[in-house]
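Lecture 7, part 2: worked example. A protein chain together with magnesium ion.
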Amino acid sequence: MSEFAQERLLRIAVPNKGALSTSASEMLKESGYRQRSDSKELALTDVENEVEFFYLRPRDIALYVGEGTLDVGITGRDLLQDSGAHADEVLSLGFGRSKFHFAGPAGKYADLGELEGKRIATSYVGVVEKWLAEKGINASVTRLDGAVETSIQLGVADVIADVVETGSTLRAAGLATFGEVILESEAVLITRQGAPLPVGFDVFLRRLEGVLVARSYVMMDYDIRVDQVDAATKLTPGIESPTVSPLHREGWVAVRAMVPRKGSQRLMDELYSLGARGILLTDISACRL
Ligand SMILES: Nc1ncnc2c1ncn2[C@@H]1O[C@H](COP(=O)(O)OP(=O)(O)OP(=O)(O)O)[C@@H](O)[C@H]1O
Ligand SMILES: O=P(O)(O)OC[C@H]1O[C@H](OP(=O)(O)OP(=O)(O)O)[C@H](O)[C@@H]1O
Ligand SMILES: [Mg+2]
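Predicted complex, written out as structure tokens:
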């Protein structure tokens, strides 16, 4: 590798463990990048694609990117906001979804106004203190590293604030959420605030966007009579415009368009009712729009 090429490697932070790690690596693999085969590897250089991956704690990733040590990172929106790092979200990645809630002993609290004067335990002190300040609520906040649910039982806190996905951890601890959702989170791509986008970032972004499109769209093909083609293509307008090709059979055309995966079965039913036949759905494995 030339010295010039080495300088141009895009440095990307990837969660090394926890709820985001596997999905992040899978998405990068689907985008055509090499990923580590051993979870003990700390970094990996993909020379062919001119990128270098650093496997870091998801909580630390926003700091590295905010400081400019690394160019790009994948982390959770909640972790980014909690860190106070100077990094911006550039793309939502659609995995690692969670909701951030206050919770207490089931049935004890109903309203977030009741937080006044309470002791709150959380791993997300930044998010909680910012929210309390915005609402003008005074409460004491204690930082715990994890297993915050147990802190109430142990008498360290009255209330917790934590990530809830299925809610099973809360239920097992006899706790329940109360009040509105404080923050909806998912994995996000982040870059340094106020800095020019790093060299090579456009290609990286386009690849990830391609995976998101390939995951959420399918390719639909069908044959239909010419007199119904306007009605049918209204149902399948595609991204730019559907491809309509002549068929050997007189009075019929073939139509091809990308359609959202969600609702695609119902769409097939509607097309069938319009007289479409030979309706096919195919997965898209990669895409650049
Ligand atoms: N069920 C879940 N549990 C925890 N975090 C989740 C869950 N689902 C999604 N997430 C997201 O994953 C990120 C937290 O990741 P992770 O679990 O690795 O952090 P952590 O709890 O601080 O680390 P660890 O549990 O390894 O000490 C957050 O963005 C969070 O919203
Ligand atoms: O709603 P659920 O599906 O039960 O998921 C939420 C739980 O998962 C996370 O804990 P994690 O497993 O990361 O352990 P930790 O508390 O030690 O971080 C989070 O802190 C909650 O405790
Ligand atoms: Mg955790």
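The pocket of adenosine-5'-triphosphate (ligand 1) is lined by residues 17-20, 58-59, 76, 78-79, 96, 98, 123, 146, 163, 165, 185 (CB under 6 Å). Residues 10 and 46 are 10 Å apart (CA to CA). Keep this in mind for problem set question 3.
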